[in-house]
Structure formats: structure tokens, C-alpha cells
Amino acid sequence: MTKKIDFSQPLMVLAPLAGYTDLPFRSVVKKFGADITISEMISSNALVYKSEKTLKMIEKSPSEDPYIVQIAGNSPELVRDAVLILNDIDGIDGIDLNCGCPAPKVFSHGSGSNLLGDLDKLESILSTVKKYSTKQYTSAKVRIGVNDKIPVEIAKAVEACGVDFVSVHGRTRAGKYKAPVDYDAIKAMKEAVSIPVIANGDIKDYAKAKEVLEYTKADGVMIGRGAIGRPWIFHQLKEQIEDKDISEALKKQIVLEHFDATLKFHGEHGTVMFRKLLHSYSKGYTGAHEFRDIINGISDASVMRDMIESFFNPS
Predict the structure, then answer these.
(1) Is 225 labelled a binding residue?
(2) Tens digit of pLDDT for each residue in 118-129?
(3) Binding site annotation covers 201?
């Protein structure tokens, strides 16, 4: 079986982001050259209970190849049952265990970044994914600790489970999304293990990606918030292009395409869901503040489309 992921060149990976990286968003990003796309975080519990909403979250666009589903869970038994369900779904190339989500409800549930405080538990759950999954790849997404930084211990624990690669957000759970990213910690993890390491955290342009790859010697970068409102960032990374070289006409085309894909996938409710994406897309434009105020009251798709048409005007 040929391997779908080639680690010989630095990879550009879309990070899983709850509420953002749904199928429409991933399909737009894929078009711009993201090497790997990952689903939003899927609750193992919801999956085991066959929640229709959760099963829909797993659906992928035909262009997503390779495609990885990320799950969160707090016990080996629950995670095993979730993996067995995913095994029966075609088109999934790997299963990623979330060991990094800092959200209080995930943490208090005993999953996400909670696992970084109990590496034995992390190993037993991650080993369970590896043992039962029939997919080509098993991976983990981690941070560098809960309150204290223990990057090397985490990297070794993950490697011991036989995973194919690990993605590291260079902050502790306590650091949330505001503390400075510790690229030294990512570098130390890369040096401590023989599996590929993907660097994540505050990588928002080509210059930063290049600097992080050179400094940490990581095998790729993972971009999450840097792609919201700027899905063409993957194209910029691959082609070494500056922001100013992305035309306004192309931006407008992408916003409309993303909007249409959101409506197609989510139905009428997609209009309301798309508001927050328009907040990001409109950043830096003249009149963005007023535009946001107006769209916050729009739930009719055709009215929203007219607003997008008139606001993102390349003239």
C-alpha cells in the first residue's frame, strides 16, 4: 500500500479548529494546496452514540486526500469503540487523538490537554487508537504541558505508542492562545524522537513558516487560525508569495465560493454560520466595522450574497 503522506518535504497541514474547519472550509483550503486536512475535533462519546450531527462532521470533500479524523476521548474503552466505527467509514486515511484542546469543558471531561497531566493515561488511550485502527495513519496533537512545560516527556510518550507523526502546539494548556509560542520546546521534541514532528502555533505567513521550519527542523507546519479569513495562505507558503500578490478579484471569488459551499453543506443555517467567517474575511477592508454590524442581522442567503458581492469589490 503506497503511503499517502510524503515526509521528505515540509508539509503544510490545516489544523483542526472547532467551529471553523468544516467540510466547506477544508475544501477551499485544499484547493490552495494544503497537504493534509483534519476534521474538527470529534467527541468519541457522540460518535459512539451515532449522533447524526457528528457523523455529518466526519464527511469529507472528494478533494481531501489524505484526510484525517481527529477524536477526543477520556477512556481506552470509549476510544476503542469510536475507532471501530471510523474503521467502517471509507475515505479516512488516519485517526488523530486530541491531546491538546485547552477548552474547559473538554479538559474537565478528562480529554484534550487533560491527558498531558497523566502521560500513562495518554499512552493507554493513544495505544488503543493504534491497536484498533485499520487506517493508514495514527497521530496525536499535543501541547507542551498543562501548566509546566514537559515537551520531551510528552514526545517520548507519544512516540512509544507507535504513532506515525505528532503535531505540537508550542504552548501549555495554561498558555491558551496568548502566551508566546515556545519554539525551543518544539525543537527539543524534534531532537528527542525519530517520528515526524509538525510545528503549530502563531504561524501566519511564509516568513514565519520558513523561520520555524529552519529553527525547529520540524517536518512541517500546521496552520489553524492563520488560515481563517485567509485560506490562500497555503498557496502563499508553497509559492513563497506575499499578501499583496493575492488579487482582490481572487479573494472575492473565494469568499463567494466558500459561502456557496457552506450553504450547500449546512442548508439555510449556513448563512448565520458564515457571519463569523465574513468577520475574518473583511479584516483590513475599509468599512469592515459597518459591514460586520449589518451582516450580523442577516439570515437570508440571497441578501447575504448581495452584501458580499457589493462589499468585496475588486475595483
Answers:
(1) yes
(2) 999 999 999 999
(3) no
